[in-house]
């Protein structure tokens, strides 16, 4: 089976199925630096990346934005001095879909 970062997001619609707790646990093994948070009852994947300068964090946030556009799936990106927090979830289903895990894994690859 290919690594998550090698997969492509699939088109998602309002009746798409959220990942189960078991599926989520299995997928989390591929992205151990990420955590599941719950905001207003909605599970989301979040990771904060640390950089030495604002400019490095800014450049990384731009790479995340380019990834989002290419995948057609868009995260919340918070840019601060030396930090870039990225949060993935599927807005249409108000929770986590496999696409979110794929994009989290692809986000990790942007560090290389």
Description:
This protein is of the alpha+beta class. The chain has a domain at 39-86 and 106-112: Gyrase A, domain 2 (2-Layer Sandwich). Helix content is 34%, strand content 22%. It is built from three helices and four strands, in the order αββαββα. It has helices spanning 21-28, 54-71, 98-109, and strands spanning 35-39, 42-50, 76-80, 83-88. The chain has a four-stranded antiparallel beta sheet. The longest helix is centred in the middle third of the chain and has 18 residues, at 54-71. It starts with 20 loop residues before the first helix and ends with a helix. The mean pLDDT is 93.
Record the SSE blueprint.
Layout lengths: L20 H8 L6 E5 L2 E9 L3 H18 L4 E5 L2 E6 L9 H12 L3
Antiparallel strand pairs: 1-2, 2-4, 3-4
């Amino acid at each position: 089976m290919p690594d998550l970062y090698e997969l492509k997001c699939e088109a998602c619609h309002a009746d798409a199925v959220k990942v189960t707790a078991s599926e989520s646990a299995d997928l989390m093994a591929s992205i151990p630096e990420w955590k599941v948070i719950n905001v207003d009852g909605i599970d989301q994947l979040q990771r904060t990346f640390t950089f030495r300068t604002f400019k490095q964090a800014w450049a990384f946030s731009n790479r995340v934005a380019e990834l989002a556009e290419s995948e057609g799936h868009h995260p919340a990106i918070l840019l601060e001095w030396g930090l870039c927090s990225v949060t993935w979830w599927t807005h249409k289903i108000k929770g986590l879909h496999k696409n979110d895990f794929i994009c989290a894994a692809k986000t990790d690859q942007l560090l290389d």
